[in-house]
Design brief:
This protein is mostly helical. It has 2 domains: 9-134, Helix Hairpins (Orthogonal Bundle), CATH 1.10.287; 141-312, Up-down Bundle (Four Helix Bundle (Hemerythrin (Met), subunit A)). It is built from 8 helices and no strands. The longest helix has 53 residues, at 141-193. The radius of gyration is 35 Å and the shape is flat. Residues 249-259 have low confidence and may be disordered.
Amino acid sequence: MANNTPKTLTDLRLLIEEVKQEILEKEKLERIIEGELELIDELLGIRDKLHRKIEKLNNPNFFQSLFRNSANNDQKVSSLSKKLTDVNHEINHHEKRINSSKVKLESLAKTTSDFRKLSNEYDAKFQEKERQIQNFKNPPQSLLSIQTEIDKLVSAQENCEEIESNCSFLLDHLSAMRNALKKAGAWGKIDLIGPKEAGPTKMAHYKTAENELRLIKRQLSVLDNILNDIDISEFTSINLHDFSPKAFFFEFFHDNIFIDKIFLEHVSEACEKIDKLTEFLRLLTIDNKARSGRVVLNIDKLTKERVALIENH
């Protein structure tokens, strides 16, 4: 880290960025050491096995000595000894890397505390200058404009998060509803044959689908309100002009469905509508993710401009 004492906010910020890089380097070195230690541990295990094999060949028991071929035995010992030498070289290589990394780490020992100290100093000075500017009778118009844009973008990001949450909820429950309907349809076919348990089982799955539909209807209303508050031109994969939850508030269920063939047609129609809504939500999720990415980039860009204006004012 540089030894010069920073005088301005800009100096402090640049120094903080420098320390951040040192922290990243420190974390990288710690990962290197951890990886090298794991490799050494594996090599030590291999070395122990080689030692035991060589020891066994050099000191056979009485029964083994009866069938021992000296030339073949010496060849095995020589081969194992070479492997042992290679393993020791590898261990030394990894130990040197560890020692080298530790030396570098020592030079970065104060990095984390330096970062906290500099960050606290910067934040205190920045907040003080920010308060001074806000107390001006006529604050810089450029600063006010940037802050207004940032506030709009923050609201847009919250909107993106709400859409993501709603779509995720709806997709999960649409999947559960479709699954229940498919099971109901399968039992409906069995019910045509006439087993006693088929009818109640069919209707149990149908009731499960009904419960899912209630949750879906409520959440679709929430999503509709959210989408009414945004610029629909930002969504390119779907046409939000055509979207209305009311179009999907279909009445799947009737109190008196006794004819199984009608029941099966009803299930098939419901699954088609679920698939249509699922595809819409899938495309909405993709567009919303892209929109969220653009919003985050713009917030970051404007925040840096705002910081620079305050630092240099």
